[in-house]
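Bumping my old thread because nobody answered last time. Still need a sequence for this structure:
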């Protein structure tokens, strides 16, 4: 059912599509088939603007789709995540040699912070880093795909904490201080003491077509939503785009919307609206 939740949706595909779904209908859409790179991360800001990373750059657009700010990734680099700091700054990770954490002022274009991050192989750019998210404490969680770990950094780039993961893609800070990690194995909620307090794998949902989990979100109800990236094809049934799971792992909602009037395409990220399911943190260390 498309009307189970209101959400903002973006898909990693050559068409660079994003949607705002309300009451089961597409209320807004964006399509840039001529653009270069796939949308890897996207966030609907409180002012209605949209910030998105698209492999070879980061862009902010207004609701009327005109470009407010844009950054081109230098040759030989890629960008797969972008995180707002309030409405005036963006933090993004730039895969490359060296890999960089950058904070840029969206209004002035000035780079206010730049830090080097350690990666597994500086010469192989694409698999270095995936999603990053700010925490309520003003630290940053980073999915190090090619180092098989999730790390937490302070504003000076000092690693405060890490947890092993197999090619992690998604990291989500939770209100209780724990972290949701999505990797090749499945989804885990882990504590900073290294304990796994909740876990789920696709093997627990036999019969549901799942190929590549990317991110997870904890809803106020206590349920967890995970997305599944997969391109459409001749397979039957068509792949799921997302699953909502109870704490016991039961499936209570699935998203499978590949045809009119709401062909959403492959799922990269969802942002649930109206219930504070995706808090947008406003500081990185002393930056507000």
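Sorry it took so long. Here it is:
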């Amino acid at each position: 059912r498309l009307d189970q939740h209101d959400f903002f949706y973006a898909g990693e595909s050559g068409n660079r599509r994003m949607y705002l779904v309300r009451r089961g209908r597409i209320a807004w859409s964006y399509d840039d088939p001529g653009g270069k790179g796939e949308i890897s991360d996207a966030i609907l800001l409180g002012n209605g603007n949209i910030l998105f990373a698209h492999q070879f750059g980061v862009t902010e657009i207004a609701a009327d789709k005109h470009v407010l700010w844009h950054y081109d990734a230098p040759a030989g680099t890629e960008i797969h995540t972008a995180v707002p700091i309030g409405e005036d700054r963006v933090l993004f990770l730039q895969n490359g040699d060296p890999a960089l954490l950058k904070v840029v002022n969206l209004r002035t274009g000035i780079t206010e912070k730049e830090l080097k991050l350690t990666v597994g192989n500086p010469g192989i750019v694409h698999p270095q880093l995936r999603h990053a998210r700010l925490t309520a404490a003003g630290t940053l969680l980073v999915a190090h795909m090619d180092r098989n770990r999730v790390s937490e950094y302070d504003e000076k780039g000092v690693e405060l904490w890490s947890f092993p993961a197999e090619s992690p893609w998604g990291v989500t800070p939770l209100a209780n201080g724990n972290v949701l990690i999505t990797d090749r194995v499945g989804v885990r909620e882990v504590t900073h003491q290294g304990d796994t307090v909740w876990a789920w794998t696709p093997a627990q949902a036999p019969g549901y077509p799942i190929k590549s989990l990317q991110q997870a979100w904890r809803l106020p109800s206590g349920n967890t939503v995970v997305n599944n990236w997969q391109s459409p094809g001749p397979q039957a049934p068509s792949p799921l785009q997302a699953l909502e799971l109870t704490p016991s792992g039961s499936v209570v909602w699935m998203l499978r919307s590949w045809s009119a009037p709401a062909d959403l395409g492959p799922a990269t990220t969802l942002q649930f609206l109206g219930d504070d399911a995706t808090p947008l943190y406003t500081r990185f260390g002393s930056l507000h």
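The two ends are 38 Å apart (CA to CA). Let me know if any region looks off to you.
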